[in-house]
Amino acid sequence: MTRRFGDVVAVDDVSLGIRQGEFFALLGPSGCGKTTTLRILAGFERPSSGDVFLRGRRVNEVPPYRRDTNLVFQQLALFPHMDVYDNVAFGLRVRRQPAAEIGARVRRILELVDLAGLERRRMHELSGGQQQRVAIARALVNEPAVLLLDEPLGALDLKLRLQMQRELKEMQRRLGTTFVYVTHDQGEALSMADRVAVMSVGRIVQLGTPEHIYTRPVTRFVAHFIGDTNIIPVRITGRHADGAALVESDGLRFTVDAANAPVGESRHVSLRPEKIRIGRAGGEGHRGTVRDLTFLGPLTRYEVEVSGRRLTVQVQTQGEEHFERDDAVEVSWSPSAPILLED
Amino acid sequence: MIGAARLRAYRTPLLLLPAVAITAGVFASAMLLLFSYSAYTFRGGQLTEEISFLAWQSFFTDAFQWRLVGNTLRLAFSVTAIALVIGYPTAYALTKVRDQRLLLAAYVVIFSPLLVSLVVRIYGWLLILSENGVVNQALLAVGLIRSPLRLVYNDVGVVIALVHILLPFMIFPILSVLLQFDHALREAANDLGAGRLQTFLRVVFPMSLPGVVAGAQIVFTLAISAFVTPELLGGGTVQVLSRAIWFNVVDVNWPLAAVQAIVLLALALAALAVFDVAARSLRAMRPTGSPRPRPDAPGGAIDTGLRVVLIALLAFILSPLVFVFINSFNGSDFNSFPPQGFSLRWYQFVLSYAPFREGMANSLIVASAATLVVIPVGLLAALALVRERVRLRGALNGLFLSPLVMPRVAVGIAVFILLVKLRLFGTTGSLVLVHAMLALPFAIVLLTASLLNVNRTLEEAAMDLGAGPLRTFWQVTLPQIRAGLIVAAVFAFITSFDETEASIFIVRPSNLTLPVQMFLYLEQYQNPTLAALSTLLVGLMVVLVVVAMRFVRGAEVARLIARR
């Protein structure tokens, strides 16, 4: 589907299938179109072209109030004139469920989100974390086919956010409800989601499991956005017998696992800092000089200049092997470490 | 000689003194006197200072007095209810308008009646509703009725005119609440399965109730004490407390008038208290997170309906002024409709008619003097309230705002008795003081608000650069509150220039102000003279506001730049 606002294309030919019961994350920087995509799923925006299917039914024209999805809003959007109970019961009352059933379901969901006993509290009498739970309960109580979450943890402090992440994942596993979770926080997406779609300027640039996206980024954007990496511009100069490509960058030569890259082309390579080994000069590796180092506790980061290029190297802190600024060192990596990117 | 240190110690009381003197000196003492007069005796057409409580006795035992109370409450209820029924959809429609020009026009039209003298508006309704007025002539012409409907000199006309006059006070609080409505809540309700109607009934309307209560509170308190409207449009048939007070003052039965004024006051305070309780129970509705107001896209029959409501309302609000304008060129000697021929003679007559010229001169003098008193006095009090540690701040605020709550008629008779006692009745100075007292609450509220917006860092910067306190105030503080000063001055001027309901008690034939002259003229004559005068007055007010707006805009731009 595609969504335009005037001349601006917010969602550009996005096509994705979300599986029943999975925790799916839409990940990207602000303005990448992830919220618009979510709002299209919720029914607040209509695609300018393309279709949305829910359980096999086309739902383009179904307004949000008749769609079997529920949204946990970024700003929570809790009704301030109602207490916890009335907020959670809202959807059931609007759908004219019998009072007894409403009572039972609201109680059950409030227990699930650990809010039992706070039914009569007003919204401003709740902590940030409690408000968060009300927003989630208010959506989940309707037992939607898909629960949509729009950066719901953004307003919480770090500790509470980590706790809520665990709880959300646990809740999703227990209920088996399909979750679509929008976030700009890669840590959040990687730790909770079964599958992640990385978005940039309205398009999905990569879709896969968190491990896949981390270890096999396809573009410079994905490699950069998820985790830390060294991006090295290279030219493909030759090919080994086993299919691996020989690449060169300012005198730095190494091999890359890439069967289909034509010789002579200029591309980029992603090399994660933790995949680089560092040692004393005199071995088989690439010669370099330590230009800077940062001690991070269990890890140490070095900035090493190799053939006029700075590489970030991250190693486990070890008492015996330790380098200082201006030390001559040697760096190396296994042939599977560098990933040849598409652009 | 008083040392500088000594002066500093008394700074706060000195800043507050003028405002307290005006409010307490004029208002509070007049009110106390009113209570004592209610205990005096009126017997056989004679007023004596014998303490008897006869007036209280006769009030509470007389069925007619109770009927007055009943009529007063009924009138206020119907006006409030109708204003709500018309005002709510209007405010709601205003939040849906996307067309910026229509929106601007709507705001101007809805708030324009505040700039037009009360008597002018009532005169406009007379033109529309009387037997040979616009409505009846139109209905007769189409053949819908055989004989004219009775629309004035009964409750109908009074209610219509009061609704017209008080509508802005209903619309404004509702509108300001609706404009802050968090659009995300509407989406949340939609997402949870509520359609448009359900969302409105369960979320939007309950959340706008604080605005409804605030609007109803203002409209009810003002309707309960309205005097000029029931007097001029009721034709003697609309028996309410305010008119009874007026007649008792004329009959020298001041004790009974005092009792009635106190009853009116008690009703107003009771109404305020009831509405306050309602408002407090709604106060728990603070939204979580930051609200994201956004009008949703117009579309569908409901939006078309709202647009129709809005345009109909704009026509309703403008109609009296339009017909006043048309009638001012009427060639006929009567307020006939349609006008017969075109003539400018009513303008010639207005400009040469001595009572109007004198009234105009008096009004300009009084309004200018009152403004010149109110602005410095209000500024000093606001400075103390905003910047100093004031003990009894709540009580002082209550004192300063109390003239707003009191029925104007009750203020009028109380001040009248005070002035007679002090042998100052009929002096222009006393009129200026009373108008200053009535305008002071607006000035204090507006100036307090703009002082709270002043960037104190700029003052500290000026002092750091060597400017003394006075120089800092003059060159740094004053420019920042210029907009507030100008708006407060315009408000004070208009309050005084239009004041009728209290003034009518305290003017003498020698110093009648223009609205009082118009009131008296309208009680006697029915010709287009007032139309011409009204048109001139509206023109004058438009000029005043346009000129003021020019200064305000410049000042605000300067302030914004200074803030950067």
Output the CATH topology of the largest domain in chain A.
Rossmann fold
CATH class assignment of the largest domain in chain B = Mainly Alpha
Q: Kindly identify the CATH topology of the largest domain in chain B.
A: MetI-like fold
> Which CATH architecture of the largest domain in chain A would you pick?
3-Layer(aba) Sandwich
What string, H for helix and E for strand, traces the elements of chain A in order?
EEEHEEEHHHEHEHEEHHEEEEEEEEEE
Strand order of the largest sheet of chain A: 6-7-8-3-9-10
What is the total tally of β strands of chain B?
Answer: 2
Structure description:
- The complex is a heterodimer of chains A (343) and B (564).
- With 343 residues, chain A is an alpha+beta fold.
- Chain A has 2 domains: 3-221, P-loop containing nucleotide triphosphate hydrolases (Rossmann fold, 3-Layer(aba) Sandwich), CATH 3.40.50.300; 228-340, Beta Barrel (OB fold (Dihydrolipoamide Acetyltransferase, E2P)).
- Chain A has helices at residues 34-42, 84-94, 99-112, 128-140, 158-175, 186-192, 210-215, 220-225, and strands at residues 3-5, 8-11, 23-27, 53-54, 57-58, 69-72, 146-150, 178-183, 195-200, 203-208, 230-239, 245-249, 252-256, 266-271, 277-280, 286-295, 299-306, 309-316, 328-332, 339-340.
- A 6-stranded mixed beta sheet of chain A has the order 6-7-8-3-9-10, sandwiched between helices. A 5-stranded antiparallel beta sheet of chain A has the order 13-12-11-14-20.
- In chain A, helix 2 (84-94) crosses helix 3 and helix 2 packs parallel to helix 4.
- Chain A starts with a strand and ends with a strand.
- The model of chain A has no long low-confidence stretch (mean pLDDT 91).
- Chain B has 564 residues and is mainly α.
- Chain B has 2 domains: 8-33 and 345-564, MetI-like (MetI-like fold, Orthogonal Bundle); 38-108 and 159-285 and 305-330, Orthogonal Bundle (MetI-like fold).
- Helix content of chain B is 76%, strand content 1%.
- A two-stranded antiparallel sheet of chain B has the order 1-2.
- In chain B, strand 1 (41-43) and strand 2 form a beta hairpin.
- In chain B, helix 16 runs antiparallel to helix 22.
